[in-house]
Structure formats: C-alpha cells, structure tokens
Design goal:
Strands 1-2 form a two-stranded antiparallel sheet. The protein is mainly alpha-helical. Helix content is 49%, strand content 5%. It has one domain. The protein starts with a helix and ends in an 18-residue tail after the last helix.
Length: 73
C-alpha cells in the first residue's frame, strides 16, 4: 500500500472524520503513535492502515485492498 492508497482508503472508509482520526487517534499497534506520527517515523502505510482499522472496528472484509483503484477496463 502506498501513501496515496492509504489516504484514499481513509477517505473512503471514514469520510470527513478521516483526517481527524489520522492526526488524533493513538494506535497501540504502532507504538502508541497516531497514524500520522507512525508514517512519519517510517511505519509502512499498510501496517498503519490495519492498525487504524483494528482500533476503529472496521470489518475485516473492508480492510484488505482498501484504497486501491479499480483496474481500467
């Protein structure tokens, strides 16, 4: 997962509150940092995405592949 895919996944899943979650919600799974802090520290976006999903109870079926663009036809 790239950073752009992370951003798209956050926007798709959380809408307007996504930005606030990224900068305010502390994620124990990435060392007690926020998503923004974790990525700045070098934690891969995919790991941060999964930690954010776990902390906010996103259903498993909406976690994998989130943020990826649909293939062009």
């Amino acid at each position: 997962m790239r950073r752009s895919e992370f951003n798209r996944a956050v926007s798709d899943e959380f809408g307007l509150r996504g930005d606030a979650l990224v900068v305010d919600l502390v994620l124990p799974a990435v060392g007690g940092q926020t998503a923004a802090e974790a990525m700045k520290a070098g934690v891969p976006p995919r790991e941060v995405w999964l930690a954010l999903c776990a902390e906010t109870d996103v259903p498993l079926e909406r976690r994998y592949g989130a943020g990826r663009l649909e293939p062009k036809r």
